[in-house]
Amino acid sequence: MARSSYLFTSESVSEGHPDKVCDRISDEIVDLVFKEAKKAGMDPASVRIACETLATTNRVVIAGEVRVPDTLLKRGKDGKVLHDAAGAPLVNPSKFKSAARKAIRAIGYEQPGFHWKTCRIDVLLHGQSADIAQGVDASGDKDVGAGDQGIMFGYASRETPELLPAPIYYAHKILETLTEARKSGTGPAAVLGPDAKSQVTVKYQDGQPVGVTQIVLSTQHLDETLTSADVRRIVEPYIRQALPDGWISDETVWHINPTGKFVVGGPDGDAGLTGRKIIVDTYGGAAPHGGGAFSGKDPTKVDRSAAYAARYLAKNVVAAGLADRATIQLSYAIGVAKPLSIYVDLHGTGKVDEAKLETALAEVMDLTPRGIRTHLDLNKPIYAKTSAYGHFGRKAGRDGSFSWEKTDLVKALKEAVR
Length: 418
Fold this sequence. Notes:
By secondary structure, the chain is an alpha+beta fold. Helix content is 30%, strand content 22%.
C-alpha cells in the first residue's frame, strides 16, 4: 500500500540561475532558427538544432550541430555559402550572438561580472552529422525516425488544477511571483537580483497536500548591506501570495538566504550549462525521468517531443477521470519511427485496465516523431518561454506554446477504453 501521510520536497530555480540562463539561450536559438526558416521558405520539419550553451564570468560559449536556412549561413565575397573542410556549410554567428544577448538582457543581467552588452560570446555551431541525418530524415518508404534512443516519462496528478504535483508547482510559483515583482522595477523586490532558488516541503495527509513545513529561498540581492532578515522581510509577502491560504502555519520553518549574503550571482558566481535542471523542468522528483534534457533541441529529438507527448497523454488520462494519478513511459530507438514500448502506471487509482489503456493511447495519438510534431504543432518558435519555471503545468498559449498542456483528448480516450 502506498503511504498516505508524508513529507515531499521539490525545488525550482529562477530564469537567472546560471543553468537556466543557458537553457534560455539554447531555446532562443531554437526559436531563431524556426523564425528564419519560415522567412526563408524552408520546410520547418527539416530544421535540426542540438544547441548547448556554457556560461561563466562574462563569457558564453554556444556549441552544437544544426541544419538551418541559408539566411543563417556564412557567405563569401561572391555571395556563395562557405563550407568547412568536411563540406558542411559554415554558420554565420551574428544572429546567434544577438539572440544570446537579447536573452541575457531580458533576464536582467547588467553586472560587472556578467553583462548582456559586454560578455564575450563564441558560436561553435556546425552542420548536423550526416550519420545522424540519414537515420532521422524521411526517405523512400522510411518515415522520419527518432533523433536518438531513450526513454521518456509523462506524469499527471490531481493535486493541483494544472494536474501537476503540488511541491514543484508551488516552488515554481514562488519564483515566478518574485520575478514579476523584481522586473516591475518598483516596490521592495526591485533590489533583488535575477539569480534565485526555491524549495518547498509539502505535508500530505490522506494522500492530499495540506500545507508546507519548510520553505527555502536563496535570492541574489543588489544591495550588499541587506541581511538575511532584511531579505525575508522583502520576500515573505510574495511567498505567502504564491502559496494557498492556510498552507503556512506558525510551525512552518523558513530558510531565507541561509548563507547570509548573496550578491555575486548568475554565471559570474557559478558556471552554467544547458540541460542540468531536468528535474526542475519536469515533476520535481515526484515522477521518473528518462535522463534527457529539453532545451536547445528541435522536436525531432524525442528527449523533448516524446516527453511532451507523454505528459499530454498522462494529463488527458487524469482529466478524463480515468485515474487520479498517471505515469506513462515511451521508448524509442534512433532512426526508428514507432515507439518500442508504451507503459502505463495508474498507481492504484485507475478506473480502467492499464493494459487496455496502453493500447488506447496508441490509437488516439500517432506517437512517431512526425506524429507528435504534427499533433502538438511543435515546428514553431515556441520554446524560449519553456526554459524557466517548468515545461509542464503551464497554460497553452495562442501562439501554440505549451500545446501539450491541452486536455482535448478526453473524449477520444473515453471512447477508446469503452
